[in-house]
Description:
Layout: E1 7-9, H1 14-21, E2 26-29, H2 35-40, E3 48-51, E4 61-64, E5 67-71, H3 76-80, H4 89-94, H5 101-104, H6 109-115, H7 121-128, E6 132-137, E7 140-145, H8 146-149, E8 150-152, E9 155-156, E10 163-169, E11 176-183, E12 193-201, E13 207-215, E14 222-225, H9 227-232, H10 238-248, H11 259-283
Parallel strand pairs: 1-3, 2-3
Antiparallel strand pairs: 4-5, 5-10, 6-7, 6-10, 8-9, 11-12, 12-13, 13-14
Helix pairs in contact: 10-11
Amino acid sequence: MKAAPFAYVRPARLDDVLGELAGGDGKVLAGGQSLVPVLAMRLGRPSTLVDITAVPELTSSTSDTEGYRVGAAVRQRAVEHDRAAHAVPLIGMAMPFVGHRELRSRGTVCGSLAHADPAAELPALACCLDATVELAGPAGRRRVPAGEFVTGAMTTAAGPEDVVVSVTFPPARTREGFGFAEIARRHGDFALAGAVTRVRVGGDGAVTDARLTGFGISDRAVTRDVTSLLTEHEDDLRPAIAALADDVVDTGGDAHGSTGYRRRLFGVLAARELSRALHRARNGKESS
């Protein structure tokens, strides 16, 4: 199929982007890896595509004490090879699993967040790390925690006249470890189940904070505080995580796997990656 007719504009200023989106019938175009298939299947028929890749503010990434900030038009491939991204080890762990290399060369980090696919890696990573999404709209700018930004499958807190400006990932702390794993039918396919973990320990090696985010298991990434689980069941996490999986995995079964199968996948991945993250936190190894 072919897309329905639309107008195309490429503003050079963010204010002009917002002007083009006024009325709510326009659609932001950055990498287009999610939007173009939607247009081709005529699942969406915007009157205007607003290309944001000429706005300087949206095309750069920076790193400071607040974190690693990625502009809305920055390609995933650029982030994957950006030395500044090393401040956020989970980015390096997760990015090779985001689609294929060719898709990452065009797709954007913020575009993946805005698309809000339940099986996507980057929204899950953002939720696990408490990343912050910056939006601009008719009422000005606002910052939304990643856990509140995605509100459901393919649904976010961004309104039809809003544009995502950036996402900021907090840097890794001392004595903090991470884990990431997913299972897909083929590398680059949508995950049947995935787990992102973050564990912090004190100077004595005791767990002070542990978070687990699952993706591909519900209508959005699901995050849980699992500090008590890791403290009480460190020697054998599997039974405790299996019980947690029964609670958080609620996606319906399909041709690729039943709900029960996804629960088993998530349970195994989550227990393993929590153990790895704890080991890394205690040994000062962020991603190896």
